Amino acid sequence: MSSIKELSKDTIIYGLGTVIKKIIGFLLLPFYTRALIPAEYGVLDTLATLTFFISAIFSLGLGGATSRYFFIAVDEDEKKKLLYTSATIRLISYSIPLIFMTIFSEKISFILFKTESYSLVIIAVAFVIFFSSQQEIQSQIFRFYREPVKFSFVTILGSIINPFCGILLVVILKWGVLGATIASLITSVSTLSFAYLYFTRKKYIRQFSWNWAKKLLKFGYPLIFTGMLVWVNDVSDRFFLLHYKNLAQIGLYSIGNTFSQPILLVNIALNMSATVIIFSLYNEEKEEDKPRTKAFLTKIWYFYLTIAISASSFISIFSYDIVKFVTSPKYIGGILAIPFLLFSLILNQCVSITGNGMTLKEKSKPYFWLMLLAAGVNVLLNFYFIPNFGYVGAAITTIISNMVYFILAYVWSQKVFYIKRSFMRPALYFIVCLMVAVFFPFYELKGNMHVSILIKAPIFLTLLAFPLILRIIDYKLALNLLNIYKNK
User: What is the pTM of this model?
Assistant: First the structure.
């Protein structure tokens, strides 16, 4: 089977499980937006931001390091030692925030929300972070061994547990933010336990390897700082909103972020399937210039842009109709952030695809400096945009900083792993669709004039033709991928 067929097959299967998870989770949104006010939604989003920050530090860059060395390990026993070593380091590392957050939960609650009433929530979040750290390596094991069906099964299991617990604790028992957090904790523990007993326990040799530990930490430590900068670039704006505005603004921003999740799903599914194939193809290819790997990376990028930009355009153009139908009227303002957040996720994923040259050449350090510049841009812009434009300003700074990050990463990766391909055609496609995507929610909400679906539909269909017009994707590739989708 060709690499592109393998990628399509795995992406569809990984995506199916993740999509089902998000769809079932998405069903919680009407319940949560009616049971929680925007300020409480803002608390949940702030805690998610805190979780991201802690994980960025205490993950020690082990995710990227484990992915890299798994394919270098010479035999199955070494691979299993590597996985066990990585899991053990995570257990030790994540015990630190668990203990700290449990002891100082009241102080952390007061610092974040000016009240100690969320101390129990902070403790629950600490346990969620601890168990989620092991979920990451369980997920990697499914990917490394090309088991997308089993991964999807575990994912769907969590998808069923989470909404059941969420509705019970938040809607019926009315435990609010604490109930939503406990629902996440129950889901993490359940899926982690099942994944371990069901499959991943067989993929460990319980022998800690100091040799692998040194390599993992050496490769991973620059990624710690990169992860912190990713946090600054992607989610630190919540704390700017908390300082300059209020929790309700964070809640509206969170709604915009929630409706950008379909693109995040595409990104996750693509990363899960593509990483294994790219590393395998690169390591197996004998030619020094790696022509097959380069051609594959170009096809991935163009195909991804076609899917992601089309989906983002659809969600943005119809955002007023979708959000009004799914949530309550008090959340409708979140549509103004949706197009910026959707296209920001596209730019972020483009870094992963077009910046692969740095990863393949084992040059992870440039990511730190590139993200430092992007995060610096984000922080500086936040001082102006958030006080003046609130959550919409936060979304604007996010897309600007991600654009800076993408351009820098693209140029740098081309230096270490040059790939001949068009840059201007994808850029034109991106800009035109972004402009259309931004126009509709602003026109409808700010102008208080709803646009008929009969007008929106033909405009969206016109945008669908752009990838073919600009020759980003050809008819044959589109038909082949469609056939693969039908067959799988």
Answer: 0.73
